[in-house]
Amino acid sequence: MHVLVADDDQASRYLLTTLLRGAGYEVLAAKDGLEALELARTHPPDLIVSDILMPGMDGYALCSEWRADPELKDIPFAFYSANYTEPDDERFALHLGADLFLVKPLDPTELMMKIESLLMLAKRDDFSPHEPAVGEQEMLKEYNARLVNKLERQLEESRRTNEELERTATRLRETVDGAVTAIAKIVEARDPYTFGHQQRVSALAAAIARELGLINDEVEGIRIAGLIHDIGKVYVPAEILSKPRRLTDIEFSIVKMHPQVAYDVLAPIDFPWPIADYIIQHHERLDGSGYPNGLTDSQILRGSRILGVADVVEAMSSHRPYKVALGIDAALDEITAHAGELYDKDAAEACVTVFRERGFTLPDSGMPGGN
Predict the structure, then answer these.
(1) Position with higher pLDDT, 166 vs 34
(2) What is the pTM of this model?
(3) What does DSSP say about strands 2-6 and 26-30: parallel, antiparallel, or unpaired?
(4) How confident is the model at residue 147 (pLDDT cuts 50, 70, 90)?
């Protein structure tokens, strides 16, 4: 005796086929209703076991075609489904002419007992397969209702799943944000003169990115990078960071190592954004005069260009041990004068806009834009 299996899911099809062959049955397998019909018409089986939710011709349509085919209508038809499991689904399946309705997953022993019972019943002289209990119009109406009901349930399940995923993503973002903020505070604790620098650069870089029309996910990556862009300064001796005069060439060469140190620390972390790349490039300049790698133009990531502009503006407008704050206007004049030469032109223009037209203020700086 041989059995025809129809199921679009490869794993389910393989498991059922293996189980039946292990019990001594010859098995043919199809991935949808149309293929099952073609196989059945050339190699009529003793039983068909079909899934319901399949592409092309689904199980319900297959059963209806099966019972309408003179060569197949007397062959027992069993459903084995994981998607259509409600009592109304079973009722409709039996009305279409199915002889058996099984819900996945079943214990293999129980499944084989039910299949073998149906096959033994089919051998009896008085066996008569279920006749369709509904007319064509009624069948189509009920069939459409089943599909709509299933679609509504799937949409509701998708909605709940999406809501749960969003809650999980929010928790993950909060965890990442908390960890990054903690790292930023460790760095800034070593350099009281630049306390809050990273937070202010982060806020300004995000504002520039939004002004440029970047998508929210990219804005978030740039914001996160801003919060820890100076993490490499943990390598720099505290006495250099807080030195109340201009640095010597040797001291400055040590400071210039901080982007590479940051990269080495952050590169192994699987952030959703290229955080390490943003940070190692934030002191690069379009003309190649930046550091650590002397990159030029398109070699510098957009996120790094934005961070670079934000970093310069914040640094020039804030007090340092070796210089007084020059103010926002001087900082904006600097990036405007060298836009397209040192700094990204679009980022520089967006920075000026957020201060002078959008009213942006550096957090805790006490300096409103334009003053």
Answers:
(1) 34
(2) 0.56
(3) parallel
(4) low
Q: Is 80 left (phi over 0), alpha (psi -120 to 50) or beta?
A: beta
Q: How far apart are CA 99 and CA 80, in angstroms?
A: 11
Arithmetic mean of pLDDT, 16-30: 95
Please name the residue that has the structure tokens 């749960």. Answer: 164
Range of the domain at 72: 2-133
Q: Which two tokens stand for residue 217?
A: 């996910």
- Does a structural domain hold residue 202? yes
Nearest to 64, CA basis, from 150, 135, 170: 135
Same domain, 72 and 195: no
Tell me the CA distances in angstroms from 328 to 232, 246, 315, 317, one per residue in order: 26, 22, 10, 5
Helices (H) and strands (E) in the chain, counts: 15, 5
The total number of structural domains that make up the chain: 2
pLDDT at 371 over 70: no
Which is nearest to 50 in space by CA: 91, 90, 85, 78?
78
Query: Dihedrals φ, ψ of 339, to 5°?
Result: -65, 135
Percent share of the chain, pLDDT over 90: 55
Of 88, 115, 133, the domain-final residue: 133
Percent of the chain surpassing pLDDT 70: 89
> Is 226 part of any domain?
yes
Domain boundary among 84, 108, 133: 133
Same domain, residue pair 221 and 350: yes
Q: 203 and 108 in one domain?
A: no
